[in-house]
Amino acid sequence: MKVAMRVTLLIILLSLAITGCWDREEVEERAYVIAIGLDKGESADHLEITYEIANPQAGLKSAPDEPPAEIITLTAPDL
Fold this sequence. Notes:
Elements lengths: L1 H16 L14 E9 L6 E8 L14 E8 L3
Antiparallel strand pairs: 1-2, 2-3
């Protein structure tokens, strides 16, 4: 019984040690929405949805010419 418990505990500890970081996301790889704007679309049943998305790489030495934010506008029938 003690041997089985030790083996089980060893397997659990080893499985925690080898999990790794396979699903890690860097801050620079994510999009952060700063503002959302809603406007009436050209037709009565559509909306224009505007997103301002921050650029975390703006101002870094690796990307000095990057704009600080990007604005994207979508036309959609609803939210």
